[in-house]
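TASK: fixed-backbone design
INPUT:
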């Protein structure tokens, strides 16, 4: 961060820097009033439901300001919220940003941060519609995203049924592995491609918006949510909401080579990281078993990667099991807990 302290800048200075950084970022046709008024105004489609989600990130807990650029942090902070919209099979429309700035933040950092926001917002057709700025003892980011979804296509986490296949849209544990590698300065112990895989997964995650909308178009997809706190924790949430148990098949968990390499470099367990690591932002879907092959084939054709089955839902009351070679044992939810954990 630059030497010029936030204390020397006025609120108007910050707002001017934000407007400059956002430039001509794309807005949606629904946005009627954006930055410059007391509130944003938008018009949702008549056949749609409105979605709203918010997340907070605090320096030293959810990210390390010294280990990420302002643009990378911008992308990650917005991607977290966009992933929640994806989990409802929706599309983002606008975002507002609440920023608590510490003494190390200056106009250069601010321009880079909002420039990063604008880049991802443009890619996902999400307008940056305003926000708020306050002083804070630690850099704090609060982002709210408004989206919408066609009424017939919305998916929630409570629709899984006994027999449904549990499937994920990508490899698990990469982001947690990236954090471990960055903290341990272990990149030089890995092949460059593997190090970049886990580093990018942690610093610049991709919200699975197109994938979420794909699932919303498939009646065979009965439940959907994003994996932000580790699959052991999030599949338990889906199971409890749906009134079923979940069984994770150990043999079906494909451990990415980047994850395996990272855990070898830092001395960790790849399986434990895949199950409990968190920050993945892949989607977890419950899919009708008779339709899974067709859904997976169409997924591969559209997104050029595999839809990975990781287990199934069975009759029960919200417990999670792991099956290893026919031997089943209960799996505790050991992922991220926002109130218990101290650092991410």
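OUTPUT:
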């Amino acid at each position: 961060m630059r030497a010029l302290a936030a204390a020397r800048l006025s609120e108007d200075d910050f707002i001017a820097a934000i407007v400059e950084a956002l430039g001509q970022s794309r807005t949606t046709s629904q946005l009627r009033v954006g930055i410059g008024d007391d509130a944003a105004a938008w018009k949702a489609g008549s056949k749609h439901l409105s979605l709203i989600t918010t997340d907070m990130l605090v320096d030293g807990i959810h990210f390390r300001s010294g280990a990420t650029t302002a643009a990378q942090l911008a992308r990650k902070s917005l991607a977290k919220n966009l992933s929640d919209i994806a989990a409802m099979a929706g599309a983002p429309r606008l975002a507002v940003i609440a920023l608590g700035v510490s003494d190390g933040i200056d106009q250069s950092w601010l321009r880079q941060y909002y420039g990063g926001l604008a880049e991802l917002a443009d890619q996902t057709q999400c307008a940056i519609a305003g926000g708020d700025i306050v002083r804070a003892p630690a850099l704090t980011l609060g982002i709210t995203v408004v989206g919408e979804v066609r009424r017939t296509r919305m998916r929630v986490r409570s629709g899984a049924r006994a027999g449904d296949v549990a499937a994920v849209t990508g490899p698990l544990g990469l982001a947690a592995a990236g954090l471990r590698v960055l903290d341990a300065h272990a990149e030089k112990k890995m092949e460059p491609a593997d190090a970049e895989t886990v580093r990018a997964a942690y610093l610049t995650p991709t919200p699975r918006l197109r994938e979420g909308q794909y699932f919303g178009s498939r009646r065979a997809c009965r439940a959907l949510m994003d994996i932000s706190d580790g699959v052991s924790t999030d599949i338990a949430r889906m199971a409890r909401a749906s009134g079923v148990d979940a069984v994770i098949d150990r043999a079906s968990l494909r451990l990415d080579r980047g994850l395996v390499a990272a855990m070898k470099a830092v001395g960790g367990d790849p399986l434990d990281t895949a199950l409990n690591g968190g920050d993945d932002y892949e989607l977890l879907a419950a899919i009708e078993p008779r339709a899974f092959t067709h859904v997976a084939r169409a997924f591969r054709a559209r997104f050029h990667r595999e839809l990975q089955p990781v287990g199934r839902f069975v009759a029960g009351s919200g417990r999670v099991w792991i099956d290893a070679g026919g031997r089943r044992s209960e799996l505790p939810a050991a992922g991220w807990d926002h109130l218990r954990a101290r650092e991410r």
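COMMENT: Confidence is low (pLDDT under 50) at residues 1-7.
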